[in-house]
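Data availability (excerpt). All sequences and predicted token strings are deposited with the supplementary files. A representative entry, BTB/POZ domain-containing protein NPY5 isoform X1, is shown inline so that the format can be inspected without opening the archive.
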Amino acid sequence: MKFMKLGSKPDSFQTDGGYIRFVASELATDMVVNVGDVKFYLHKFPLLSKSARLQKLVAATNDANGDEIHIQDIPGGPAAFEVCAKFCYGMTVTLNVYNVVAARCAAEYLEMYETIEKGNLIYKIDVFLNSSIFRSWKDSIIVLQTTKSLLPWSEELKVVSHCLDSIASKASIDTSKVEWSYTYNWKKIASENGNSLQWNDARKPQMVPKDWWVEDLCELPIDLYKRVIVTIKTKGRVSGDVIGEALNAYTLRRLPGFSKGVNQNIDFVKYRSLVETIVWLLPTEKGVVSCSFLLRLLRAAIFLDCGETERNELMRRIAQQLPEAKMNDLLIRAPPGEATVYDVDMVQNLVEEFVTHSSRTEPVDNEFLGSRSPKFGPDASKVLVAKLIDCYLAEIARDPNLHLSKFVNLGETIASFSRPSHDGLYRAIDMYLKEHPGISKSERKRICKLMDCRKLSAEACMHAVQNERLPLRVVVQVLFFEQVRATASAENSTSDLPGSIRALLPGGSHGSSRSTTTNTEEDWDSVPTADDIKALKGELATLRLGSNDSGNEAAKSDVEKVAASRMKGLVMSKIFSKLWSSKERHGEISSSDTSDSHGSVNAEETKSTPSRSRRHSLS
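Structure token line:
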């Protein structure tokens, strides 16, 4: 910290009580200066020789008052006036970063110009500021902080603007030229430089990070911080990602509980202004601020009831970067009075905004996608968002107060997003059914329509077949598509499959498996009993046996091949007769494709398991 000493005489100012200051001298004092609540008993000659204002005030006083003058509005108050008075007496005065601005403003108030006396206080302070303070990184920051209590004097004297320019210039300098001390999280820089805090082999210090200046500026109040960031932006030499890092660090430091949830016991007005300012300062470039930071800002903005403009701006930015979001960041608490735990409507709006944005733009070119997985095509962002919302749905499904319509509406928003697997969505649906056992058959049917059974993995299919919470139609669908896939895989071709089955294979049709179960009987929407599950599992085992047998068909005799094929057809028709008859009634399957199946169905109707024939007649 820089400092400057003025004068050489010993300090002879003394105190009599808390509100009286006087100069210990053989000469009697001949003037009284009232500064606020403090009385200064001083001598005219040393003060009037350096202050034009005191000359005027003394000349204007009434003789009856005995040269007593009142100064109520001097910047810096009694402390700043005392510094100026000691300078007039030639006593030793130490100026530092904490009192120099107050002394400069007080000297300006007292009109201690060079025209009154050469080498006056204003001149000496200006030399100190320009030669020392404004050349120091940390001193400039501290001095800028002191200017706030001295407005508008510090602004009119350009002390604020000089501080801003000094700080912004140093923050914008090439990092190779940074030679001053600064505050930085060395754990972070160690990880960036190979986990070593020591000098390297060439005996050179660690590289200065691009955001070396970020933490020191966190000491500034939000109004001054805003002006510093604006000045740095104006110079145009600092990238948007560093500005974003600075805003993130400042918010973490200044907003209590920002990383985990804003503290309830805070000054709402103060911190609302802080969040709104941070939103206003966000860089305009897309992707330079992390989506996680934006979502935490949105959470704070909602909690602090920030303006609609700020919230809409955050929603717009987040929607553009939604593919890089993390599920935990979406778990924003619902507003007071809501029955649900999380604000599902807000996430719904984000996804809808993402869909709108995606429809307006060209195929995605988000920078962050390149580092995630190059295997994704032009729809990579939609795949990422679909996975994100699948995870979110699984989390909010645990809420017993979550209405089915909110779950389904959010799921339907991403229904058009093509993704290779529906395992995540199945997990979410299963979690909702588990936590809401009292929903009706129609509601179970509605929520299960979100899922495409063709896109379930083998593990998910095994779970679904044994899942007593799923409607019977879904269990049968899973078995059906597993068998179709097994058949196609065994034959290594789908050319020999009936056209209606080929249409149901992934890639064979862009339609959903939901179309295969439209308008079937009510029983197919019911929850299967333990007997149903047992029967289906037994039939699945038979299907597997048949599939394994088909894999070795090359080694079998013609008679064995025919027998294995016929057995597989009988078991398949036993399970799917209901499904095929329903599809035929709705014109979904041509007669040529289904005639053989129906023949098998009629032959095997009477052989259904007792429990299934009782509950689900196939006639």
